[in-house]
Batch of 3 targets.
Target 1
Amino acid sequence: MTKSVWIRGLKTAIVLAAIFGVWEYVSRAEMVNQFLFPPPTQVFTDTVAAFTDPPYRSGDGLLFQIGKSVYRAVAGWLIGVVVGVVFGVVVEWWNKPGSVAISLLEFLRPIPVILFLPVLVLVVGIGDLSRIIVIAWASFIFVAINTIFGVRTAKQSLLPDVVRSFGGTETLVLRRAVLGLAVPQIVAGARQAVGVALVLMVASELILSTDGLGWFILFMRRSLFPAEMYGAILMVGILGLIFGTLFQRLQKRILAPYLD
Amino acid sequence: MVGDLVDMTTPKTSSSPAIHLKGVTKTYARRGQDEDLKIIDSLDLSFRPGELVTIVGPSGCGKSTILKMIDGLTPLTGGSITFEPSSPKPRIGFVFQDYSNALAPWKTVQKNVEFGLEIEGVASRTERAEAAARYIEMVGLEGFEKAYPRELSGGMQQRVQLARVLAFEPDVLLMDEPFGSLDAQIRRVMQEEIRRILESLDRTVLFVTHDIEESLYLGDRTVVLDHRPARVLTDFEQGERTSSYEEFVASNEFRTRYNQVWSLLQRRGDHA
């Protein structure tokens, strides 16, 4: 186990070193425009400097922008998950129009939520709330659909009959059988939501924004600071890796009893 | 009715209630067909307190449906099912055939065995834990308290279900082909276990199976049901049995009974 993790880490490091090595060489040898494609060593030093001391005159550094973005992503995701689970359970358990709700969600799902952003900004302002709503909405759709399917499958399984057989009320059927059985499907929805929340985190900051990682990338491009721009883009990737790993750990813990 | 008539007047001593089925009918609506499918057609059947009755019949004859109706899991289309005495409401325990789906996958063996008590609202943790421990031991699962169902074999999962239902301390025990999904060897082991456990219980037990041998070996009384719609082909009691399984299946009594049941079921053009 630990050995294979080490080997995998080593392989990844070798591949990354090779990519950065080629990039460094291509840039330093002036095979491309060195200003537009600065070598990774420069990207690294400039980005680290920009953490607290950004190339623009006043304002907060890259660390602050990362903090802003992470706050929006986490808040939006959490709201989306909570509301999605509650909505999914209520719709499928009590009112039974789950199929209607699913059709509606499937209809809304492909509409890029980012289109709502300009309108949202008009309504709630340019700050955090508009981005959080966009992220929450997208997370909600994934979690709600999965919750509805999870509850539906659980309702048709044997465990609800077990609860009834022990004299349990329908409320107990929901609490003691259906919710537990729906957990893996709900977690699958939350996982899809992590991916979409990260994409929307950056995308929502590209439009009508004054801060955040997405704004920083855009601003560095416009201000002709390519090194900082690349650095910030790499930060998005690193954030994705961190959140993916964190969620995987959480998922492993929650689903441990369910999976082989 | 073929076979011996069962004397309903001499009750056994037991805290269990008698169960009376009168004119019980069950039909299912069939998709795209005007006529409903009749599973059970005005079935009359009574079970005495403390009786261990095996119900045998071909697959799909409605045996399981009868148990589910007694437990209130499936509504009756017609007729009535009554308990005598009717109050207090008898506690009914149900052992499902599909053990893997009858257990909560996210709960340990210990918590699964406590499940019935939890549903009933036994608030005291220690009380639940003590009951669970007692029955986990009875079904031979000591040492597996903290395991999850998926970590257990089919036979062990069925033991968990058995412990769960015993911990509930039911007045009536309904067992729906409990060993139907187990392989032959495990099934034999489980048959011995269940015989040992049920002998110590003195409760009304209805044990549904499609295995004639199993029904004869386990039952004090055996009811043979016909294919759809279910009706009683024969209903007989067997004498007190002290012999081992090997002796029993080699006995003339067993062979006579087996052939009788087999020919009845065969004559109906369906094999059990």
Target 2
Amino acid sequence: MGFEHSVNNSSINNMRRSLLFFFVLGSLFLFTAHAQTYRAPRTPDGKPNLGGVWQALNEAYWDIEGHAAAPGRVLALGAADAVTPGLGVVEGGAIPYLPEAAAKKKQNFENRLTLDPEIKCYLPGVPRATYMPQPFQIIQTAKHIMVIHQYATAVRTIYMDNQTEAPADSWMGWSNGRWEGETLVVDTTGFNDKTWFDRAGNFHSDALHVVERFTATDADHLNYEVTIEDPKVFSRPWKMSLPLYRRKEKNAQILEFRCVEFVEELIYGHLKKQTSK
Amino acid sequence: MKHRVVTSIILVFLLTTFASGQTKKWTPPRMADGHPDLQGFWTNNTYTPLERPRNVSKEFYTREEALELEKKAADEETEQTVPGTVADVHYDFTQFSLDRNQSAHALNLRTSMIVDPVDGKLPPLTAEGQKRAADRAELAKRVGRWDSAQSNDLDDRCIIFQGAGPPMLPQGYNSNYQIVQTPGYVMILFEMAHDTRIIPLDARPHVSRNIRQWTGDSRGHWEGDTLVIETTNFNGKNPLRGSSENLRVVERFTRVDADTIQYKFTVEDESTWTRPWTGEIPLRKTIGPLFEHACHEGNYGLYNTLVGARLEEKKAAEEAAKRGAQAR
């Protein structure tokens, strides 16, 4: 009652109009927000269920930066080993290397046939494992989220509780995760300096810090966003972004790609016993 | 106050004992879907051999006998790495806690893992199994262990370890597993060479017969409170005591108390053994987490041993040539 005494009718009408305006605006906002945010099915503990067999579908495994088609690394393999062209997954296009690091990247590229850890079946590191041309499976529980890659039986445990710092450096790093609404945020450190980002020699040091964000955009896609930080190699943090696709084959499953056997001749062949000539 | 606590504990103990009757049935923790929760870190670390020792005829040791045998085995393990002995250039098991007696392990009174046949021994080989065993022995005679990387054991090559299974047989050290469970899958990560088994529980058929794998192709289902995993599609390159690619393994996981999963496995291979055989070994709860065992990436052992073998051959050849020259 006191309200009507203190303001005149026209200002009440104005206020009503404003309220209506804000109501419409708010509804619109909520509507668009709803349309943008897909709500994934839930796990028994009420978290977005990201479980399944996933795979990237792009050419980042050749080179995370945009690149044209190019001859391959092995002459005898001709077109079968040729670099497939790709738009790149690095936000802004180029990786902000420090000058010395840029030179090392060039060297890596020139010697990729002998230096690329993938060729020796070494563990791929993160995020390279995610966009290799092979599937991986997420098995998700409240305490541990397992990421199991087909390539080289590489596996990551993402600790959702009992989180500790990396006890030592490793190839796949030490991952701690948390939920931010619909997004799984994974913070990984404790890397060694032996893995690469791709077959083009893009690299990092043992100061690498990776933050990955997995968000389901619909039933069969995840948006995968990665922030890379490594002050020894890059002038600033930078980002990669790519979609991950659910493997829709009936009964999709990870098979064995136990590649050590395939590289023994390459790595140890020269140390074989020479049979008498 | 202290008395009251003690009295309460005794009371609770008595109540539970009476409530559960003589059987004292333990109820496992359960998942949201009602199945037993097998998750956590486990080890099948043991001193129990697969086959019953020759001088033993009974199925079980007494507790005292078992403890005595463990102590003896532990002492031998410790002696392996006494400074100044040949073995001390290898791992110091005690220093790195790799010896079994320093790690968690269940006291097992069984005299062998094999429970069927009742003599605790592998059943006889079929004619085909005998021939295969003879062929493999013949090949092993012709090829020296250090002739090439490929002529080494699979674990020295970091391809696969015995503990990966199936069946998951304990090994000298690091017999550690992590089990993760969702409504549709069970995952078992074995520490050595980060070997992961993903077992679908949705009754899907096995993959094509053409797909042969080191750890085969596993399918799981629940039988009451027991997880049953059936595995086929082996590639035959990691023979289990002489098995072929026709190997079929059925594993049964049952939680029997807070710290133990009873692990039972039945092995069938008509082209190798005259009958199936079954083994049993407890998985005991252990502390995590598992750390990355990047075996192949750091396999200096294999590399250096091959280098050493070639150097020794060179030296031997040079000495032979020298002797030849002197003789002339």
Target 3
Amino acid sequence: MPSSTSSSELVVDRPARSFLGAVCVGLILGVAALAAYEVFWRRVGLRSELQDTAELWATKRMAADDAGPAALAIVGSSRFQVGIDPEALAAELPGAVPLQLAISGSPGLPILRDLAEDPHFLGTVLCEVTPTSTFTPLRITMKGRPVEWADYARTRPAVAAWEGQLRGFAQSHLVILSSGLNTVELIERLAKKRGFPTPPYATFRSDRFRDADYSKVDTKAMLQHWTSGFAKGVNPPSAKDEAALYSAIGNWVRQIERRGGTVIFVRMISSYSVLELEERNLPNVRYWRRFLEQAHVRGIHFSEIPGIEALRCPEGSHLSGDGARLFSRALGRELVARGWLTRTR
Amino acid sequence: MVFNSLLFLVFFTLVSGAQYLPLSWTGRKLVLTLFSYLFYAAWYPPTIVILWASTCLDWIVTRAMVRTESRSKRRSLLLASLAFNLGVLGYFKYSGFVLDNLSPALAALGLHVPAGLIPHVLPVGISFYTFMSLAYVIDVYRGDTKPVGSLIDFALYLTFYPHLVAGPIVRSQDFLPQLETPRRATTADFGWGLLLLLFGLFQKVVVADALLAPIADRVFSGGASGNVVESWAGALAFSGQIFCDFAGYSTCAVGAAACLGFRLPENFRRPYAALGFTDFWRRWHITLSSWLRDYLYISLGGNRAGKARTLFNLMVTMLLGGLWHGAAWNFVIWGGLHGLFLCAERELKPLLTRLPAAWLAAMRPLGVAITFVCVTFAWVFFRARTFHEAIGVVRGMIGLGRHGSTGALLHPLQVATAVVGVGTMLLIHQRYRDSSLRQALERKPSWVVAAAVACLIFVTVTTAGEDRAFIYFQF
């Protein structure tokens, strides 16, 4: 153990000279440099945008508790975040409070569990099913960002919502706070010779919906990207893992139903080679049908929704903003038609 | 509320302005205390009751101690304070850990622990303010310090917002005298404080969170899937991350205090330039290690009761020091490793002192390197969430993980970032081993300081990503 350091001699001495002048000049120079940086990126064509953060997600998650039986939690991955527009869905389901809780790059099951285990949640869940991320052993899906965000929502500091509002305001007005312009990521991007960031093709709204516009995007290249990813194949779950998965999901659904809520699974739309590969890897008849039967849950496949027969995902995996509005309204109408949801809830 | 938040900017402006209110010194101390409670309540307001209880009890206990001549009554008062403070700390921090470990045995006896028995909230900063309060009570008991007459002064000592949630663990002798005379930050204090705040935020936001944390996160969540290079890069990244995270917080705390005209103790002195583990603990989290020395190691007998007892005392101190950081076996292992390092150093030191001075001087860089490598190895257990995860990374570090080229777990650029980033940090620590930031800055012309401030602001603002809490908040 240290033996020669008394506490008092540790107290930091004041400097012999004042740094206030230098700090003030530095502050002015720093702010001027930031302003110039802001102008530069605006001229490049980037725009300020709200960031999708744990704090914003937690705000929606808490709103799902506060909305009581009217809450309609939208749970899934980027396919739901881009594919279900809460405003369009609300237009078909007056009285419902749709809350976008989908998290990009993550399956919805950890959030379904979180809602099931929360006695304060009394509403309905729309849970996305994407074969490759849903029909996977729970030990693989029940970790990562959804688990972290759900934990954060439960334990976040009392003033987190205020901090979120301040940050949201700053992000909405300053381009330099965009995630693509984070200095470390930007240096990494340039080192990998990927060039300057380009404006995102999806506008992120404060209700967490991503409004995608593919008009200036090479959708063929994106389709190729998804196709090569799905072409690597998947490891279907073992019979034991599959049984455990369906049993767990069934239990979560029952927990929500016991409080008066409902859970509806939605096999989300995909198109072109992505759909073909999903069918090849995890066939609909084998997995989706069996899932509904064995977990004893309600589900709707996108092919069963009237009015969207001609709808396609431009890059195979995600809908455009217009497609999302069409899909959301058609889904809302079909859920009412089936009697699973009512217009007055 | 954390220092790296916009809300803190608002709070800082208000609290800095409040020191210029036309109030008496007592009035301004009261305002500062209320602001500090507000700062604390920003996490989870109900836990403020525990802080109040601890404050009131220890203030009353120490006042009663000096009023009595009876040795046994003084001892009873000390025990009452220890029982309350350690009981509250134990309940909130360790009850879950203890019951988790006992539950198999209890279940075998047919006993089940009710879920409601385990607290769901760990009051932020409880380990820090409990240690401060205990130090004060023990000092009064020992007669090393006089009890403070004013409850406001004592409350401000415990709750002064810069150190409240993550230290430094300030001794009453260092802080209470500063409350005796009215103080406001001078322009020099304010400039110095702002400089420290900016530097601390740069360490936290840029180096710890943006540069190094993603690398450490990736390797530790990947377990044994890293090869030797990736596993060491992950461990190195965490060595840099934990230093910049915690030293960054401490620097902000000292800076925030300076902006109010107060002085706090230094918590880090270039620890990665340490030559040996005793030296490391003189440089790392100094206010905790000196607390453990003064109130635990020496109380156990220190080095006064023979060699075996000294080694035992060292091990106990470091094991409990590990447990102070968190209720998990990984922290105990981390503390145990440091205990073993200190014991080994104690045994080796007599042999080393027999070597010629020229040899010792030549071996010095090797000694610094060995110290750093051992400290980095121990950090693996500190960082890993489970023992299994730690073993996964250790296996990777000794070549029993995945074989093959780098790229599967970490991009080569990330490996380079960890090596270059932490390597630069080591060089800086070595270069400024025996001086301080203040001394280094005092020698620089003003235009260099202004340019550095501009750069710090620019990089910090453009790097700030999603919030990461300061690692030491969980303790």
